[in-house]
Each structure stands twice: as structure tokens, then as C-alpha cells.
From TrEMBL:
Belongs to the short-chain dehydrogenases/reductases (SDR) family. Pfam families: adh_short. Signal peptide: none annotated. One of its GO terms (cellular component) is cytosol. Keywords: NADP, Oxidoreductase. One of its GO terms (molecular function) is cholate 7-alpha-dehydrogenase (NAD+) activity. InterPro entries: NAD(P)-bd_dom_sf, SDR_fam, Sec_Metab_Biosynth_SDR. This is Short-chain dehydrogenase/reductase SDR isoform 2.
Length: 97
């Protein structure tokens, strides 16, 4: 694990990442999984890329659940619905910490 995040513990937490299909978002999802995050919602406009990334990460990190969402984050109502759906599906609320 990257030394910057070596003491990060997120066991039992859930997280949402925008732009999660590739690049920084995908790498941050890996970091969250390494820190013990229970589930990660990956949001991206690219549905295929998002699903492929979730499948790849699920194989690498079987203890973390990765859920793909196709969403246009410029649409406030869409993003609010996805956040609510994700949190409700996990029986949790998202922390702002």
C-alpha cells in the first residue's frame, strides 16, 4: 500500500468515487479497497468502462463490493439519486469525513 495511506483504515465504511472507470478514480478505488472499505460506488458516464473496472477490481479485492453507476455528474438530480440509491443499497449513510 502506498506509504501515504499505509495507516488509513476504513473498515465498514462505504464510499462513492466520480470518474471511477479509469485513471485517478480507479486508482483511488484500489486505495479504498486496500484500506478495508466495505463497498465502493463507482460513478462514470462510461457505463461499459465502469462495469469493466468494477469487475476487474472485484477480482483483485473480493472483500470490497464495487457497484457501477452510469451518471452525468453535471446533473444534480441524477447524482443525488445515485448517492441515495447507493447508500440505501448498503443500509448506510455516507459520511462527509
Amino acid at each position: 500500500m502506498n506509504s501515504l495511506f499505509s495507516k488509513l483504515r476504513l473498515t465498514g465504511k462505504i464510499a462513492i468515487i466520480t470518474g471511477g472507470a479509469r485513471g485517478i478514480g480507479k486508482n483511488f478505488a484500489k486505495t479504498l479497497a486496500q484500506a478495508g472499505t466495505q463497498s465502493v460506488g463507482l460513478l462514470d458516464w462510461d457505463a461499459t468502462g465502469c462495469h469493466n473496472t468494477c469487475d476487474e477490481l472485484q477480482q483483485q479485492f473480493p472483500d470490497t463490493l464495487f457497484i457501477p453507476y452510469q451518471v452525468d455528474v453535471s446533473q444534480k438530480e441524477s447524482i443525488e439519486k445515485v448517492i441515495d440509491d447507493f447508500a440505501n443499497s448498503q443500509g448506510k449513510r455516507l459520511d462527509s469525513e
